[in-house]
Each structure stands twice: as C-alpha cells, then as structure tokens.
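pasting for ref
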Amino acid sequence: MSPTAVAAPASATHRGAAGLTAEQAADLARELDALKAEVVSTLGASDAAYIRGLIQTQRILDATGRALLMAAKRPAGFVLGTTLLGVAKILENMEIGHNVIHGQWDWMRDPDIHSATWEWDFIAPAAGWKHTHNDVHHAWTNVVGKDRDVGYFVLRVRPEQTWQPRFLFNLPINAILAPFFEWGIAFYDLEIDEYTAGRKPKAAFRRDLKAFGIKLARLAGKDYLAMPLAAQVLTRSGRQAPLAGTFLANTIRNLWAHSIIFCGHFPDGVEAFSEEAIEGESRGDWYARQILGSANISGGPLMHLLSGNLSHQIEHHLYPDLPSNRYAEVAPRVKEICARYGLRYVEGPLPRQVGQAWRTIARLSLPTRGLRARHAPAEVAPR
C-alpha cells in the first residue's frame, strides 16, 4: 500500500484515522505533494556531489580505522582505530546504505549508487530489508497487525498489542537486541514466523536463507578473518586488536542504529492505528498517519548526519525516496503544515526520546488495561 495507490473516499463527512475530513485530507495531500515536487525540481549537481563525497569520506574512515587496528600496539591506536571504524560503519548504514536502498539517489542513474545494486555493511541482506522495511513498514506504519516493525514480533511496544507472558522479558530482550541489532534485523527479515505459519513459500524462505548465509560469510570473512590474518602477516601486531576493535565497532554501530530507529516510532505522543481505522484511507490520510506515527530527534547537523537524517523521521516517512540531505530544508515547512491541520508533530532531544522508548518497553512488559487514548486532532481552520 502506498500513498499513490489508495483511493480517496467520496464522502466529505468521512474522517480517517487522523480525524481529517475527506476535504481536509485532500488539501493536505495537495500541499505535501507540492512541497515534494518543489524540492525534487531543484535536485542536481550539488546533491550528487554530497552523496559521492560522503561515500568517499566513509571509505577513507573505514580504511584508516582498519589500518590502525591492524597496526595497533598501543591503546591509543586501538581506541582511535575502533572509533574511526565505528563511525565509518554508522555512516555507511545510516546516511548512505539505508537511504540508497530507499532509492533516494536513483535519480542520478549511477549504477554504483542505486537501490537495485547497493549492498550495505550489515548482516541483513539489502533485498530482505527492502521488502520488510520499504514495502511493509513504510506502507503500514504503526498499523498494529500490519506493520511488522511494531515490536519486531519479540517486544510489546504498544498497548494495542495483546499482552502475553513472554512480554515479561521485554527489557532483557531489548537489552540483548541493542548490541546485536544487525543480527536481530537479519533474522527478522527472514520472516521465520511467516514461513512456519505457511504464509511464506518454502522457495522464498530458502532463497532468503541462502542470501543471509552468503552475506554472513562475506562480512564475517572480511571483519573477523581477513583483518586479523592481514595484521599478523603485514604488521606482526597480532590478531587481538583487529578482532576486538572490529567487534566493538560493530557493537557501537548496532547500539546507535537501535537507538535511532527506536526513537522513530516508540516515544511518547506517537500513535498506533488499527486495521479498521485505515479502511478507505486516502492519500491525505496516509500522509497524516505517517506524521502521527513518527517522531523526530532534535539536534544539529552532526546529529542529522550520524542518524542518517532519521532524526527527521516524520519527513522521511512522508518522502522516503527524497534525498536525506534535503530533509532539514523541508522540516520547518512540514511542521508549519502540521500546525495548520492540527496534526501533532512529535520531536525531542535524543536522550529524552531514547528514555521514553525504553520506559514504554518497560511499562508494557506488564498487562495494561484498555488502550491509550488517541490524540484528537484540533479542528482545521476553514480554508
């Protein structure tokens, strides 16, 4: 389901999940469509230079970090090498890989920076991620029973999810998931639950499992076999520093990615929706649901860069294929539009958003009565 594939309801009295009438939803869609078209019309050489320069910078950081770890004989070299490699992995996953796989740079027609060819430095294969993330999560954002990212089938993150005894382990499961986030996503993308329930064909499951095995062998071979062997042969510094440094760099990346992604949909004020509430959803209703089902992280340019501009989660969900370096440009205008339509625009600093997400996970490990009351949109002024 996408905003372009949904038919608008004919009745002007219809109110979608966000509480907008059909007329209000149509007006919202026109405004947000026009905003995107305006930005897309200005894409050009400076944007292409941005992503190409960032990829080059990331590769320099990666190579430098690995070289320092392979040659490390003192703690300072180990710490610096681990830090540079960790930052390189964060940049590759967040601002580069995630966004290239979304098709944000397909307009360049560069086969080396394209969603059809990019494979990221993450255990989860890009093809599986595109299905579970791009096709499912972005279409059904925060629709309980449709959006598989609501708890990833191991956590209770919304009171609308039926409580089960296994959710008593919400906190320890999340604590384990955070440092091993790439592994959790890789197994999640296999859709083992869909396969065992008979909803995923055996051939598709075997294909995805094979892709996972190939990706695992390639990345593990690079990080935990080739690097230590090269260190021993080229620098005679031993295998310990490359092994430990690479493991720590991957852990740093996983902890950061987990925090950013959980801040996107689980802090206070973010809404969830039932399948019944989105029946007959129009394009404008879809836009409104993306806004109400997402949360931004406030911060400066470095925060935006390291988060892959997912600090602009609301803008990303409105325009998932818009180059991420433009989200800061459209964010103030999106916020102004939200204010006029009475749509809550959730944002806050990283520590607060992370804390709220963990607090929610802790609270929902226990049974809850009823459902959290949904925010009621303010009346929209006559236009």
